């Protein structure tokens, strides 16, 4: 099974025959190319055109993070599954306001359902969250009646505000989490959320690459020259299921604490040791399997990302109504 590789040391990434070599001043590590799904770069890595051509040929994406641990961008090989038909139909669904809004609503409908499901899990464990669950479910009922993307995003923002206000109740650490702040994160919980959300985003981007979808044509988020906005759309569904549940586990097991961060130049930065813990747990989470109700077989969490892309592709090409993934366990 292909896997993700995470590079922290400074050095060089090279090609040698049919392998990748991660080389620094002390060691050289060989990786068979058929083992690689995607590469995450957290250190300063140099490479040449020979290597980039090799990555192109083997459909390997590379995601870059800066010194502060923030996502910078991706090396995205030329699409190997190009389809003019899908590209045009995806664009038509974006340009047609009603078609775009229909898909955008489904992203938020599914994401908010998964958020509510998370709270209901802790409510069943004896943590009183009935009021917040009712507030979220009340807002969810408004989703189908909105008439604009802006109104939809407003509902989503209010749902998340209520959701984040509950975290202090079921996380067994003094996180003092008041609100979501991104640019830059103002405290260690916001920094943790931003880091894990970037992992969800890049995982989604890699899975989009293996479909006919164009990652720059989105429906909920506005397309931009500097981002793969469809990845932002689909990520909304998996943040509560994969990202948030991972955060709850890391914090409640004290695998990540405020000691896992340092403050530097008004930035709250994850230590490399903490990043490695998170990445290991994130990989393990993506490998876990569930019994898929419709497919009637076990699929991994990572596979759920790809299946979501396939459903959206069928929606834009075959008029098969897209239904976002909702957790049932």
UniProtKB/TrEMBL annotation:
EC nos: 3.1.-.-
Binding site for Mn(2+): 156, 221, 236
One MF term in the entry's GO annotations: DNA binding
GO-annotated biological processes: defense response to virus; maintenance of CRISPR repeat elements
Cofactor(s) required, per the database record: Mg(2+); Mn(2+)
Major enzyme class: hydrolase
Pfam short name (any one): Cas_Cas1
Record has Isomerase as a keyword: no
Keywords assigned by UniProt, alphabetized: Antiviral defense, DNA-binding, Endonuclease, Hydrolase, Magnesium, Manganese, Metal-binding, Nuclease
Family that this chain belongs to: Belongs to the CRISPR-associated endonuclease Cas1 family.
Function: CRISPR (clustered regularly interspaced short palindromic repeat), is an adaptive immune system that provides protection against mobile genetic elements (viruses, transposable elements and conjugative plasmids). CRISPR clusters contain spacers, sequences complementary to antecedent mobile elements, and target invading nucleic acids. CRISPR clusters are transcribed and processed into CRISPR RNA (crRNA). Acts as a dsDNA endonuclease. Involved in the integration of spacer DNA into the CRISPR cassette.
HAMAP family xrefs: Cas1
Subunit structure of this chain's protein: Homodimer, forms a heterotetramer with a Cas2 homodimer.
Protein name, entry field: CRISPR-associated endonuclease Cas1
Organism: Tepiditoga spiralis
Gene that produces this protein: cas1_1
């Amino acid at each position: 099974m292909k896997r993700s590789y995470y590079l922290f040391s400074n050095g060089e990434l090279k090609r040698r025959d049919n392998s990748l070599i991660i080389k620094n001043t002390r060691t050289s590590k060989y990786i068979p190319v058929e083992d690689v799904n995607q590469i995450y770069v957290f250190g300063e890595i140099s490479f040449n055109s020979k290597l980039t051509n090799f990555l192109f040929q083997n459909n390997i994406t590379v995601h870059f993070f800066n010194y502060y641990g923030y996502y910078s961008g991706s090396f995205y090989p030329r699409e190997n599954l190009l389809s003019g038909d899908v590209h045009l139909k995806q664009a038509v669904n974006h340009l047609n306001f009603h078609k775009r809004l229909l898909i955008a609503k489904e992203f938020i409908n599914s994401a908010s359902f998964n958020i509510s499901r998370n709270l209901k899990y802790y409510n069943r464990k004896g943590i009183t969250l009935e009021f917040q669950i009712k507030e979220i479910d009340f807002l969810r009922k408004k989703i189908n009646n909105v008439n604009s993307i802006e109104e939809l995003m407003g509902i989503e923002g209010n749902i998340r505000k209520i959701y984040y206000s509950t975290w202090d109740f079921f996380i067994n650490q003094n996180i003092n989490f008041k609100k979501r702040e991104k640019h830059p994160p103002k405290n260690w919980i916001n920094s943790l959320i931003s880091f894990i959300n970037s992992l969800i985003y890049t995982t989604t981007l890699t899975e989009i690459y293996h479909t006919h979808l164009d990652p720059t044509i989105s429906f909920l988020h506005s397309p931009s020259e500097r981002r793969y906005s469809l990845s932002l759309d689909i990520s909304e569904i998996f943040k509560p299921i994969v990202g948030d549940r991972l955060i709850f586990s890391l914090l409640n097991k004290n695998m990540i604490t405020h000691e896992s961060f340092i403050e530097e130049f008004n930035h709250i930065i994850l230590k490399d040791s903490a990043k490695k813990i998170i990445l290991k747990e994130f990989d393990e989470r993506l490998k876990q399997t569930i019994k898929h109700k419709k497919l009637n077989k076990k699929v991994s969490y990572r596979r759920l990302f790809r299946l979501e892309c396939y459903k959206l592709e069928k929606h834009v090409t075959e008029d098969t109504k897209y239904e976002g993934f909702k957790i049932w366990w």
